[in-house]
Design a protein that fits this description.
20% helix; 36% strand; 138 residues; 8 strands; alpha+beta; single chain
C-alpha cells in the first residue's frame, strides 16, 4: 500500500510569486530586505501560511492543500499602493500552475483600507490583500 503524497506549500508560493512577477511587479517573500535599502516606488510582499493538508475522503488521504496568502501591496503614495493591488488582483484571477496539482482560481478575500507606514523614511502606503489558495492532486 502506497501513501499518497502530502501537499507542499512551497511550490504554491513559487507559483504566486511567478504570477505576480509576470504581471510586472517586484515581489519579496516574508518581508523586505533588512538594513539600509532604497525601496522601489511600488512593490508587493507575499506572506504565505504553511497551509493545511485537507482530507479528501473517508480514507483520510490528505492530498488537498488549503492555504492563505497575504499580498501586501506597497507604494510611495496611495495611488501606487492601489495600482499594485490592481495588478495583484489581475495576476491572481486565473488558476495557478503547480506541477502535479489541479489548482482552483485563488479566492480574493479582500483586506483593510490603505494605510500609511510612518515607521519608514520616506513613509510608504500599504494595503494587505488576502487570497485563499487551494489545490488537489492532478
Amino acid at each position: 500500500m502506497t501513501t499518497p503524497p502530502v501537499p507542499d506549500v512551497l511550490p504554491h508560493v513559487d507559483a504566486v510569486k511567478a504570477a505576480l512577477e509576470a504581471a510586472g511587479l517586484t515581489v519579496f517573500v516574508g518581508g523586505t530586505p533588512g538594513g539600509t535599502w532604497n525601496p522601489p516606488d511600488k512593490f508587493a510582499v507575499l506572506y504565505p501560511d504553511p497551509g493545511t493538508a485537507v482530507r479528501e475522503s473517508l480514507a483520510d488521504d490528505r492530498t488537498t492543500l488549503d492555504s492563505l496568502m497575504q499580498v501586501t501591496c506597497v507604494g510611495a503614495d496611495v495611488e501606487r499602493a492601489l495600482w499594485v493591488a490592481g495588478r495583484v488582483r489581475r495576476a491572481l484571477a486565473v488558476p495557478l500552475t503547480v506541477a502535479g496539482r489541479s489548482c482552483w482560481r485563488p479566492e480574493d478575500l479582500g483586506g483593510p483600507p490603505v494605510q500609511r507606514d510612518d515607521d519608514v523614511t520616506p513613509p510608504l502606503f500599504f494595503v494587505p490583500v488576502q487570497y485563499r489558495i487551494c489545490s488537489a492532486l492532478a
